[in-house]
Amino acid sequence: MTGARWRTVGLALLGFVMLAVLWEGYKWFWGAVDGSVLGWDLPASGDDTSMPHVWTVVERFGQPELRGSERTVGAAVLAGAWFTFRMAMGGFLIGVVVGLALAVVMQRFRLAEQGLLPYVILSQTVPLVALAPLVAGWGGNLSLPILGEWESWMSVVVIAAYLAFFPVAVGALRGLQSPSRASVELMRSYACPDRKTLWKLRFPAALPYLAPALKLAAAAAVVGAIVAEISTGTKGGIGRLIIEYSREATGDPAKVYTAVIAAALLGLLVAGIVTAFDTVAMRNRPKETAA
Protein backbone atom coordinates (compact mmCIF):
# COMPACT_ATOMS: atom_id res chain seq x y z
CA MET A 1 0.00 0.00 0.00
CA THR A 2 1.38 3.39 -1.03
CA GLY A 3 1.94 6.30 1.31
CA ALA A 4 -1.11 8.09 -0.08
CA ARG A 5 -3.32 5.08 0.67
CA TRP A 6 -1.98 4.81 4.22
CA ARG A 7 -2.66 8.50 4.67
CA THR A 8 -6.23 8.03 3.46
CA VAL A 9 -6.79 5.14 5.87
CA GLY A 10 -5.23 7.14 8.70
CA LEU A 11 -7.47 10.13 8.01
CA ALA A 12 -10.52 7.88 7.93
CA LEU A 13 -9.62 6.37 11.32
CA LEU A 14 -8.92 9.84 12.67
CA GLY A 15 -12.38 10.89 11.51
CA PHE A 16 -13.97 8.05 13.48
CA VAL A 17 -11.98 8.99 16.56
CA MET A 18 -13.00 12.64 16.27
CA LEU A 19 -16.64 11.64 15.84
CA ALA A 20 -16.46 9.52 19.01
CA VAL A 21 -14.83 12.39 20.91
CA LEU A 22 -17.52 14.82 19.73
CA TRP A 23 -20.21 12.32 20.72
CA GLU A 24 -18.85 11.90 24.23
CA GLY A 25 -18.13 15.61 24.51
CA TYR A 26 -21.71 16.49 23.68
CA LYS A 27 -22.98 13.99 26.23
CA TRP A 28 -20.76 15.55 28.90
CA PHE A 29 -21.77 19.10 27.96
CA TRP A 30 -25.46 18.20 27.90
CA GLY A 31 -25.19 16.79 31.41
CA ALA A 32 -23.12 19.73 32.67
CA VAL A 33 -25.64 22.36 31.56
CA ASP A 34 -28.69 20.19 32.29
CA GLY A 35 -29.78 20.16 28.65
CA SER A 36 -30.15 23.92 28.15
CA VAL A 37 -28.02 27.00 27.52
CA LEU A 38 -29.34 30.45 28.46
CA GLY A 39 -32.84 29.04 28.60
CA TRP A 40 -32.61 27.38 25.18
CA ASP A 41 -32.88 23.60 25.05
CA LEU A 42 -30.07 21.83 23.22
CA PRO A 43 -31.15 20.25 19.91
CA ALA A 44 -30.68 16.63 21.04
CA SER A 45 -30.92 14.85 24.33
CA GLY A 46 -27.61 13.53 25.63
CA ASP A 47 -28.94 11.00 28.11
CA ASP A 48 -28.00 7.34 27.90
CA THR A 49 -31.33 6.40 26.32
CA SER A 50 -30.94 8.75 23.36
CA MET A 51 -27.12 8.74 23.12
CA PRO A 52 -25.49 5.71 24.72
CA HIS A 53 -21.76 5.81 25.36
CA VAL A 54 -19.50 4.80 22.49
CA TRP A 55 -18.02 1.93 24.47
CA THR A 56 -21.52 0.68 25.28
CA VAL A 57 -22.34 0.43 21.59
CA VAL A 58 -19.05 -1.34 20.85
CA GLU A 59 -19.63 -3.84 23.67
CA ARG A 60 -23.14 -4.54 22.33
CA PHE A 61 -21.69 -6.06 19.15
CA GLY A 62 -20.30 -8.96 21.17
CA GLN A 63 -23.39 -9.59 23.27
CA PRO A 64 -26.30 -11.95 22.41
CA GLU A 65 -28.87 -10.50 20.04
CA LEU A 66 -31.72 -11.84 22.13
CA ARG A 67 -31.84 -13.19 25.65
CA GLY A 68 -30.83 -16.85 25.52
CA SER A 69 -29.71 -16.61 21.88
CA GLU A 70 -26.32 -17.88 20.76
CA ARG A 71 -26.06 -15.40 17.90
CA THR A 72 -24.44 -12.11 18.83
CA VAL A 73 -25.53 -8.70 17.64
CA GLY A 74 -22.32 -8.45 15.63
CA ALA A 75 -23.11 -11.68 13.78
CA ALA A 76 -26.66 -10.53 13.06
CA VAL A 77 -25.49 -7.16 11.82
CA LEU A 78 -22.79 -8.76 9.66
CA ALA A 79 -25.34 -11.09 8.07
CA GLY A 80 -27.69 -8.17 7.44
CA ALA A 81 -24.88 -6.09 5.96
CA TRP A 82 -23.95 -8.93 3.59
CA PHE A 83 -27.56 -9.21 2.40
CA THR A 84 -27.87 -5.46 1.85
CA PHE A 85 -24.46 -5.35 0.18
CA ARG A 86 -25.57 -7.87 -2.43
CA MET A 87 -28.82 -6.00 -3.07
CA ALA A 88 -26.99 -2.67 -3.33
CA MET A 89 -24.33 -4.04 -5.68
CA GLY A 90 -26.98 -5.64 -7.87
CA GLY A 91 -28.84 -2.34 -8.07
CA PHE A 92 -25.58 -0.48 -8.62
CA LEU A 93 -24.59 -2.65 -11.59
CA ILE A 94 -28.03 -2.34 -13.17
CA GLY A 95 -28.00 1.40 -12.55
CA VAL A 96 -24.58 1.74 -14.19
CA VAL A 97 -25.73 -0.15 -17.29
CA VAL A 98 -28.95 1.87 -17.58
CA GLY A 99 -27.18 5.16 -16.88
CA LEU A 100 -24.45 4.51 -19.45
CA ALA A 101 -27.01 3.46 -22.06
CA LEU A 102 -29.03 6.62 -21.52
CA ALA A 103 -25.88 8.76 -21.67
CA VAL A 104 -24.80 7.19 -24.97
CA VAL A 105 -28.24 7.74 -26.51
CA MET A 106 -28.46 11.33 -25.27
CA GLN A 107 -24.95 12.11 -26.50
CA ARG A 108 -25.62 10.59 -29.92
CA PHE A 109 -29.00 12.22 -30.52
CA ARG A 110 -29.54 15.82 -29.51
CA LEU A 111 -33.30 15.36 -29.64
CA ALA A 112 -33.05 12.45 -27.17
CA GLU A 113 -31.06 14.62 -24.76
CA GLN A 114 -33.65 17.38 -24.91
CA GLY A 115 -36.47 14.91 -24.44
CA LEU A 116 -34.99 12.51 -21.86
CA LEU A 117 -32.75 14.60 -19.63
CA PRO A 118 -35.59 16.56 -17.94
CA TYR A 119 -37.35 13.30 -17.08
CA VAL A 120 -34.10 11.75 -15.81
CA ILE A 121 -33.77 14.69 -13.42
CA LEU A 122 -37.47 14.63 -12.55
CA SER A 123 -37.27 10.94 -11.66
CA GLN A 124 -35.18 11.71 -8.58
CA THR A 125 -37.89 13.89 -7.05
CA VAL A 126 -40.22 10.92 -6.43
CA PRO A 127 -40.14 9.92 -2.72
CA LEU A 128 -38.76 6.41 -2.27
CA VAL A 129 -41.14 5.73 0.59
CA ALA A 130 -44.03 6.10 -1.87
CA LEU A 131 -42.31 4.41 -4.79
CA ALA A 132 -41.07 1.24 -3.04
CA PRO A 133 -44.54 -0.20 -2.26
CA LEU A 134 -45.61 0.50 -5.85
CA VAL A 135 -42.61 -1.38 -7.23
CA ALA A 136 -43.32 -4.28 -4.90
CA GLY A 137 -46.99 -4.31 -5.96
CA TRP A 138 -46.26 -4.14 -9.66
CA GLY A 139 -43.50 -6.72 -9.41
CA GLY A 140 -45.80 -9.14 -7.60
CA ASN A 141 -47.74 -9.54 -10.84
CA LEU A 142 -44.68 -10.40 -12.90
CA SER A 143 -43.00 -13.70 -13.69
CA LEU A 144 -39.51 -13.40 -15.14
CA PRO A 145 -38.30 -15.97 -17.71
CA ILE A 146 -35.11 -16.97 -15.85
CA LEU A 147 -35.64 -15.81 -12.26
CA GLY A 148 -39.20 -17.04 -12.01
CA GLU A 149 -41.74 -15.46 -9.69
CA TRP A 150 -41.04 -11.98 -8.40
CA GLU A 151 -39.39 -12.01 -4.98
CA SER A 152 -39.25 -9.20 -2.44
CA TRP A 153 -35.48 -8.83 -2.84
CA MET A 154 -36.00 -7.99 -6.52
CA SER A 155 -37.94 -4.89 -5.48
CA VAL A 156 -34.98 -3.86 -3.33
CA VAL A 157 -32.60 -4.23 -6.27
CA VAL A 158 -34.89 -2.20 -8.54
CA ILE A 159 -35.12 0.65 -6.03
CA ALA A 160 -31.35 0.63 -5.57
CA ALA A 161 -30.89 0.76 -9.35
CA TYR A 162 -33.44 3.59 -9.56
CA LEU A 163 -31.26 5.78 -7.36
CA ALA A 164 -27.96 4.63 -8.87
CA PHE A 165 -28.65 5.30 -12.55
CA PHE A 166 -29.10 9.08 -12.22
CA PRO A 167 -25.56 10.20 -11.29
CA VAL A 168 -24.11 7.76 -13.83
CA ALA A 169 -26.34 9.07 -16.62
CA VAL A 170 -25.57 12.73 -15.89
CA GLY A 171 -21.84 12.21 -15.26
CA ALA A 172 -21.35 9.97 -18.29
CA LEU A 173 -23.24 12.39 -20.53
CA ARG A 174 -20.99 15.24 -19.47
CA GLY A 175 -17.91 13.08 -20.00
CA LEU A 176 -18.99 11.86 -23.43
CA GLN A 177 -19.54 15.46 -24.49
CA SER A 178 -16.18 16.60 -23.09
CA PRO A 179 -13.85 15.92 -26.09
CA SER A 180 -12.96 19.07 -27.96
CA ARG A 181 -14.36 19.79 -31.38
CA ALA A 182 -10.85 19.45 -32.85
CA SER A 183 -10.52 15.91 -31.45
CA VAL A 184 -13.88 14.90 -32.89
CA GLU A 185 -13.04 16.42 -36.27
CA LEU A 186 -9.73 14.56 -36.26
CA MET A 187 -11.53 11.24 -35.78
CA ARG A 188 -13.88 12.14 -38.63
CA SER A 189 -10.95 13.03 -40.87
CA TYR A 190 -9.75 9.45 -40.39
CA ALA A 191 -13.21 8.26 -41.48
CA CYS A 192 -13.82 6.69 -38.05
CA PRO A 193 -17.43 5.61 -37.57
CA ASP A 194 -19.38 6.96 -34.62
CA ARG A 195 -19.04 3.65 -32.78
CA LYS A 196 -15.24 3.75 -32.99
CA THR A 197 -15.18 7.40 -31.96
CA LEU A 198 -17.29 6.47 -28.96
CA TRP A 199 -14.89 3.73 -27.81
CA LYS A 200 -11.58 5.35 -28.76
CA LEU A 201 -12.28 8.98 -27.86
CA ARG A 202 -15.43 9.66 -25.89
CA PHE A 203 -15.33 6.83 -23.34
CA PRO A 204 -11.66 7.41 -22.37
CA ALA A 205 -12.42 11.13 -22.03
CA ALA A 206 -15.42 10.34 -19.83
CA LEU A 207 -13.46 8.35 -17.23
CA PRO A 208 -12.58 11.37 -15.03
CA TYR A 209 -16.27 12.28 -14.99
CA LEU A 210 -17.42 8.73 -14.33
CA ALA A 211 -15.26 8.28 -11.21
CA PRO A 212 -17.20 10.71 -8.96
CA ALA A 213 -20.48 9.68 -10.60
CA LEU A 214 -19.86 6.03 -9.74
CA LYS A 215 -19.07 6.93 -6.12
CA LEU A 216 -22.35 8.83 -5.84
CA ALA A 217 -24.18 5.95 -7.53
CA ALA A 218 -22.68 3.41 -5.12
CA ALA A 219 -23.70 5.44 -2.08
CA ALA A 220 -27.16 6.01 -3.57
CA ALA A 221 -27.56 2.27 -4.19
CA VAL A 222 -26.88 1.52 -0.52
CA VAL A 223 -29.37 4.16 0.58
CA GLY A 224 -31.94 2.86 -1.89
CA ALA A 225 -31.49 -0.73 -0.74
CA ILE A 226 -31.89 0.17 2.94
CA VAL A 227 -34.94 2.38 2.35
CA ALA A 228 -36.49 -0.29 0.12
CA GLU A 229 -35.98 -2.95 2.79
CA ILE A 230 -37.72 -0.73 5.32
CA SER A 231 -40.57 0.26 2.98
CA THR A 232 -41.28 -3.21 1.58
CA GLY A 233 -40.63 -5.17 4.77
CA THR A 234 -37.94 -7.31 3.15
CA LYS A 235 -36.23 -9.42 5.79
CA GLY A 236 -32.55 -10.20 6.07
CA GLY A 237 -30.95 -6.79 5.51
CA ILE A 238 -29.72 -3.84 7.52
CA GLY A 239 -32.90 -1.89 6.86
CA ARG A 240 -34.99 -4.57 8.50
CA LEU A 241 -32.61 -4.76 11.46
CA ILE A 242 -32.90 -1.00 11.99
CA ILE A 243 -36.69 -1.35 12.24
CA GLU A 244 -36.51 -4.38 14.53
CA TYR A 245 -33.85 -2.90 16.80
CA SER A 246 -35.61 0.48 17.00
CA ARG A 247 -38.52 -1.26 18.75
CA GLU A 248 -36.13 -1.97 21.61
CA ALA A 249 -34.66 1.55 21.66
CA THR A 250 -36.10 2.41 25.06
CA GLY A 251 -34.65 -0.56 26.89
CA ASP A 252 -31.62 -1.25 24.68
CA PRO A 253 -30.62 1.94 22.82
CA ALA A 254 -27.12 0.73 21.99
CA LYS A 255 -28.58 -2.06 19.88
CA VAL A 256 -30.11 0.41 17.43
CA TYR A 257 -26.81 2.14 16.86
CA THR A 258 -25.10 -1.12 15.93
CA ALA A 259 -27.29 -1.39 12.85
CA VAL A 260 -26.88 2.31 12.05
CA ILE A 261 -23.09 2.03 12.27
CA ALA A 262 -23.16 -1.04 10.04
CA ALA A 263 -25.18 0.88 7.44
CA ALA A 264 -22.64 3.72 7.48
CA LEU A 265 -19.69 1.32 7.18
CA LEU A 266 -21.44 -0.47 4.33
CA GLY A 267 -21.68 2.78 2.42
CA LEU A 268 -17.98 3.42 2.99
CA LEU A 269 -17.14 -0.11 1.84
CA VAL A 270 -19.04 0.26 -1.42
CA ALA A 271 -17.48 3.67 -2.02
CA GLY A 272 -14.05 2.13 -1.35
CA ILE A 273 -14.67 -0.57 -3.94
CA VAL A 274 -15.53 2.08 -6.52
CA THR A 275 -12.44 4.08 -5.54
CA ALA A 276 -10.28 0.99 -6.09
CA PHE A 277 -11.83 0.56 -9.52
CA ASP A 278 -11.10 4.21 -10.27
CA THR A 279 -7.47 3.74 -9.24
CA VAL A 280 -7.05 0.75 -11.56
CA ALA A 281 -8.83 2.44 -14.47
CA MET A 282 -6.83 5.66 -14.19
CA ARG A 283 -3.37 4.23 -13.41
CA ASN A 284 -2.12 4.44 -17.00
CA ARG A 285 -3.60 7.84 -17.81
CA PRO A 286 -1.44 10.97 -17.70
CA LYS A 287 -1.93 12.93 -14.49
CA GLU A 288 -2.91 16.09 -16.30
CA THR A 289 -5.59 14.18 -18.23
CA ALA A 290 -6.96 12.42 -15.12
CA ALA A 291 -7.28 15.77 -13.35
Task: Tell me about this structure.
The chain has 291 residues and is mostly helical. It has 2 domains: 1-51; 57-290, Orthogonal Bundle (MetI-like fold), CATH 1.10.3720.10. The protein has helices spanning 3-32, 54-61, 73-108, 110-122, 128-139, 152-176, 181-189, 194-232, 238-246, 253-282, 287-290, and strands at residues 36-37, 40-41, 143-144, 148-149. The strands form 2 sheets. Strands 1-2 form a two-stranded antiparallel ribbon. A two-stranded antiparallel ribbon has the order 3-4. Helix 3 (73-108) crosses helix 10 (253-282), helix 5 (128-139) crosses helix 6 (152-176) and helix 8 runs antiparallel to helix 10. The radius of gyration is 23 Å and the shape is globular. It starts with a helix and ends with a helix.
Termini, distance in Å?
22 Å
Low-confidence stretches: 287-291
| Structure class | mainly alpha
Largest sheet: 2 strands, antiparallel
According to CATH, what is the topology of the largest domain? MetI-like fold
What is the CATH superfamily classification of the largest domain?
MetI-like
Query: What's the Cα radius of gyration?
Result: 23 Å
Q: Give a count of the beta strands, DSSP E runs of length 2 or more.
A: 4
Helix content: over 70%
Count of the separate structural domains: 2
**Which outline best applies?**
globular
Largest sheet: spatial strand order: 1-2
Name the CATH class of the largest domain: Mainly Alpha
CATH architecture of the largest domain: Orthogonal Bundle
The total count of helices amounts to 11
Mean pLDDT metric = 84
Strand coverage percent? under 5%
Series of H and E elements: HEEHHHHEEHHHHHH
